[in-house]
């Protein structure tokens, strides 16, 4: 399953098969597929991540988010949209702030490479059986 954050990108959990000499591991790992206005990313490099077509992508659930912080859904939507707009303006102006997603990871830019770094706790929460393999892959 995946979640589309309009103007920013898609977060998803994808299965990945790893063959070792002794065993075959199938782990679930988080990925982020960037989907920003290309004018913001003129001088930046970012990894190409393809989310498989069989992964169901849902739009960000503003109603659910509003339940976690007691704000109306339209206020939550406005906050998300304005935050993404501010982030894209900062990238366009050659500022390189980190964009932190609580309990998920950090979208950061180092040496003109924009990439998503997932927290170990996020990866471990998705994959309880082969946690170390998933951590090494991500």
Automatic annotation (TrEMBL):
Q: Name one GO cellular component term.
A: microtubule organizing center
Pfam families found in the cross-reference section:
HU-CCDC81_euk_2 (PF18289)
List residues traversing the bilayer: none
Which species expresses this protein natively? Urocynchramus pylzowi
Q: What is this protein called?
A: CCD81 protein
Gene that this polypeptide is encoded by: Ccdc81_2
**Domain of life (superkingdom):** Eukaryota
The CCDC81 HU domain covers: 57-129
